[in-house]
Amino acid sequence: MIVSWSWLAPLISILYLGLLFAVAYYADWRAARDRSLIRSPFVYALSIAVYCTSWTYYGSVGRAAVSGIGFLPIFLGPTLIAALWWLILGKIIAISKRNHITSIADFISSRYGKSPVLGGMVTLFVVIGIMPYIALQLKAIAVSLEVLIRHMDAGWTTNVPFVPWRDTALYVAMLLALFAILFGTRHLDASERHEGLVAAIAFESIVKLGAFLALGLFVTFGLFDGFGDLFGQALANPELARLMTFEAIPGGYSSWLAMTFLAMMAVMFLPRQFQVLVVENVNEGHLRQASWLFPLYLFAFNLFVFPIALAGRLLFADGSVDPDTFVLVLPILGRQEWLAPLVYLGGLSAATSMVIVEAIAMSIMVGNDLVLPFFLQFRKALREDLSGIILTIRRGIIVVLMLLGYLYFRLLGESHTLVGIGMVSFAAVAQFAPAILLGIFWTGASRRGALAGVLTGFLIWTHTLLLASFAKSGWIAVGFLTEGPWGIGWLKPEALFGLTGFDPITHSVFWSILCNTGVMVAISLFDRQTAVEQIQAQNFVNVFQKGARGGNEYLWSGFVSVRELRHLLARFIGPLAAEEDFAEYHRQRHLQPSDDAQAPANLVAFAEKRLTGAIGSASARVMISSVVKGEELDLQGVMRILDETSQVIEYSQRLEIKSRQLEAATLQLREANEQLRELDRMKDEFISTVSHELRTPLTSIRAFSEILRDNEDMDLVERRNFTDIIVKEAERLSRLVNQILDLAKIDAGRMEWHEVEVDLPLLAREAIDATRQLFDNKAVRLINKVPEISCRRMADRDKIMQVIINLLSNAVKFCSPGTGEVCIEWRETGEGVGLAVVDNGPGIPEGELEKVFDKFHQVNQGGMEWPLGSGLGLTISQRIIERHQGRIWVESTAGEGSAFIFTLPHPEPSS
Amino acid sequence: MSHEILIVDDAPNIVLSLEFLMKKEGFAVRSVGDGEEALRAVEEKQPDLILLDVMMPKKNGYEVCEAIRTNPAWKGIRIIMLTAKGREVEQEKGLALGADDYVVKPFSTRELVLKVRAMLGLEDATPA
User: Fold this and answer.
1) Which of A571, A875, A894, B117 could bridge to A843 as Cys pair (CB 3.0-4.6 Å)?
2) Count of CB contacts below 8 A, A vs B?
3) Which has more confidence, A654 or A159?
4) How far apart are the C-alpha atoms of A201 and A350, rounded to whole Å?
5) CATH superfamily, region A5-16+37-526
């Protein structure tokens, strides 16, 4: 031996750790350039293998050597539960990502109404439960180093003087603390990935598996002639043969099942497991591959556990070597100068990866859930950037944890076996299982239920395992164990309530999990949840439902300005990051950022989530409520908001209907308005026309009256002429007034109608008689072609007569004296019977045909003497005929005369 | 030299009364029954003054007034609109289109005569 292992072993340890730093640094460097090393399900699965600690590495061989297949649950549990990861972990990861949850304590606290008490309690229990586990790793490092130095230098003898190397464990612990600080506390926001850390862990997983496999191969094929030889030799030894049955397991099946259960829970809920599985998860989809890759890793790992254990037992049949050190002693025994250090490094990597991740995970928990709540109470008033302070706190916590672990190892370490400590820790974190599992599947699980459950479970754990182990170590009087505390028999830690027959771990798990779950369910069933609890319960249980994320927005109803909120966030994550976050928030919602505006509820919720990532949900809640003025919502408040929301939805639906109705009504109104405007225009025109029509005769009357008055010397003929004009114009005026009144009456529906049986042909003859004088005066011929028949209709006799006379006198007016000819004819068509008045006058141009029935419409009669007419006759006639459901129209060719025709409908068949 | 008055109205009796009144004042009188005839009559021989009804077939009084005023040669023709519509807008419209005055039907014969005389510059010669 040229070199001394007493300094070579520490040197390769330091070099190995240096390599680890390099790997982590390189991964961080790559990540900073967006070329991540860890975005792969393989890396994810390897990082989960942080599960395999030195306890697995050294301890499972030791356990197999003592209790045979009793070592299997440690591998079997995770393999079994991995099949359910998609259901449980998939949900936990989704919840944690949506809510920026960064630790198991934060997860539980957040689920149960962001309870600071629960978060603090879980953290405290984690520290108590895991501290021995960290101590165990330090012890493993120290012991393995010692073994390596002693035996490599001295060769294998059982009688080597103890060389106290200058406290390796302490230096290793400090180095690991440095690593954790460098790669685990760079950013405050723990929801940011620690890529370097994950890469280093994955690297260590490869190292430890590689070393273990190499050892297994060496032992099986180097020290023995393969599996056949090894197992054959073992089976020849009855004691070793027994190891291959269940009988070897202390406690038998029940113990085996209990350990499997503990391993199932531990692989998910140990702080370091939660850290790599949930917090460091880069892609939720990786979980699918990891749930078969990780069991594969475990399978490869435990392949040689049993062969190595059997080999150790066969080769050290005298029991001079601690089975826990078989792994390291076997290659030394075989004089493998390269394999032995490699195996040592495998063990070192298993221990260091666990310590590093555990330390980081616990620093976040202790920092966020134990230290920060107190710290913030005193520093609340300070308006400074707290991110540096919080990071410093976390770094301090890591150092303190390491020192505590070291002290624990120094003070208590000698009294525990490796496996014993690991199982105790597993049993501790299993106490969180009911709160987590019930919490993500049952909205009814309440804060008080979870608090009581975890507390109960932990008290039982403390009593049955922790205190019992203290008693075994002699820290407490042994009477505590054998007589029960204060001599109370049914409180004996390993026979609680008189239960015997289980090994201590199984006994403890049985009582603690049973009481934990029972108390939690019982209290939850009778508990009333607060608003925050209810909302968080919904958020967690229904995390995959669309819209579940919006639930948080109801939590804040107070007032805070955007600026204040941003300043708060800036204090924890830095002004730049806060600025960017707020800008991003506004950009995504297409909002215009305004500092003075009141922050909307969802912005408050957004800030709270960002803050949760940095300081945990409970502290985030406290900080947000310190700036939000106004009241936090109670249950009634939430229900009111929900009520209002549903009312608002209903209102908006109704509004939509209303607005559609309104639109339709508006359209109708617009149409009606158009009609009204048209009517108004027509009314104006009517009044204007009436005024004109009235003024024209009035003008003549006044003019001639004044002429007669002013010219007394007028000759008699002229005087007579003028007087006649006055009389005629006066008559015309009164006729006009009557017709206007008639029309107004008809239009207003106030005209009285007297329906009697009217014989139309007879009526025509009477009308002819009444107007004969008109025709004679103008020398217009009237030809009556109405047959001598009788045709009766129900009608207003006088009105129909008025129509006929009007048509006849109209015809006369337009006929030339002498040549004029008006013919009255009988019409019988499909739609009714009636009369036609045909003249040989000038006719009506085609464009005017439609208008002749309009009020005051007078057909232009170029060059002709303008016939005196009111312009209302045809309009009134039309109204009268329409009132009788008949029809009146004109047929005409310009220059050839016109025919005005009206018909009254045939009587209905029934009458 | 007697002034010539052109009477434009579609109501024969009104034309008759106006003819009587104007002739009695010693003016020469021509009468037409619609707007187109009126313009023809003006082209034929330029009258000194037109008594112009508004509501007429073919071309109404406004159109006639406008047509006359667009021809600079007829600048000297005085126009008095006879309107049956009492609304101010319509009277304003007439004045805006170039009428010199307007009279609302039914009019006072004496006032009309005075207006005609004044417009022809005869007020002093024959006091009312």
Assistant:
1) A894
2) 67
3) A654
4) 9
5) Sodium/glucose cotransporter (1.20.1730.10)
| DSSP-assigned letter for residue A845 | -
Q: Beta-carbon neighbour count of residue A875 at 10 Å?
A: 21
Residue A772: how many other CB atoms lie within 10 Å: 12
Task: Write the pLDDT tens digit of every residue in A194-250.
Answer: 888 888 889 999 999 999 999 888 888 888 888 888 888 888 877 777 777 766 666
Rounded CA gap, A227 and A302, in Å? 14
B53 vs A contacts (CB less than 8 Å): none
Are the C-beta atoms of A67 and A242 separated by less than 8 Å?
no
Greater confidence (B85 vs A662) lies with A662
Residue A695 touches chain B, beta carbons under 8 Å: yes
In this structure, the dihedral spanned by the alpha carbons of residues A793, A794, A799 and A805, taken in order and rounded to 10 degrees, is 10
Q: How many domains does chain B have?
A: 1
pTM over 0.90: no
Q: Provide ipTM, 2 decimals.
A: 0.92
HSE on the CB side for A448, CA within 13 Å? 9
Q: Which CATH architecture has domain A647-742?
A: Orthogonal Bundle (1.10)
The answer to whether A705 faces chain B, any CB pair under 8 Å, is no
Q: Where are the domains of chain A?
A: 5-16+37-526, 556-633, 647-742, 754-905
- Put simply, whether A594 touches B (Cβ < 8 Å) is no
Nearest by CB to residue B55, choosing from A692, A710, A729, is A692
Tallying the residues shown for chain A, one arrives at 911
CA distances from A31 to A182, A202, A540 (A): 15, 15, 31
pLDDT digits (tens, 9 = 90+) for A705-734: 999 998 888 888 988 999 998 998 888 888
Q: How far is B12 from chain A (nearest CA, A)?
A: 8
Residue B50 belongs to what domain range?
4-119
Helix, strand counts (H, E) of chain A: 36, 7
The first and second tokens of residue A24, run together, are 């982590």
Answer yes or no: is B127 within a domain: no
> Which of B60, B105, B108, B114 has the most A C-beta neighbours within 10 Å, making it the best mutation to test the interface with A?
B105
Which chain B residues are within 8 Å of A725, Cβ to Cβ? 13, 16
CB B31 within 8 A of CB B7: yes
| Residue B51 contacts residue B109 (beta carbons within 8 Å) | no
As assigned by CATH, the class of the A754-905 domain is alpha beta
Q: Are A13 and A242 in contact (CB under 8 A)?
A: no
Best of A685, A689, A698, A700 to mutate (most B CBs within 10 Å, chain B) = A700
Phi, psi of A37 (to 5 degrees): -85, -20
Q: Is A706 in the B-facing interface, judged by CB distances under 8 Å?
A: yes
Whether A725 and chain B come into contact, CB under 8 Å, resolves to yes
Chain B residue with the nearest C-alpha to that of A708: B17
Evaluate whether A301 touches A349 at the Cβ level (below 8 Å). no
* Cβ-contact A434, A108 below 8 angstroms: no
Burial A177-193 (b: 16+ CB within 10 A, else e): bbbbbbbbbebbbbbeb
Whole-angstrom distance, CA of residue A310 vs CA of residue A225? 14
Closest alpha carbon within chain A to B107: A699
Q: Is the peptide bond before B106 cis (omega within 30 degrees of 0)?
A: yes
Contact residues, chain A, for B108 at CB < 8 Å: 702, 706
Residue B104 lies in a domain: yes
- Decide if B124 is inside a domain: no
Cβ distance B109 to A700 less than 8 Å, yes or no, reads: no
Which residue of B34, B85, B108 is in closest CB contact with A691? B85
CATH number assigned to the domain comprising residue B105: 3.40.50.2300
Q: For the residues A855-877, what does the mean pLDDT come to?
A: 58
Task: Inspect the interface and report whether the beta carbons of A688 and B87 lie closer than 8 Å.
Answer: yes
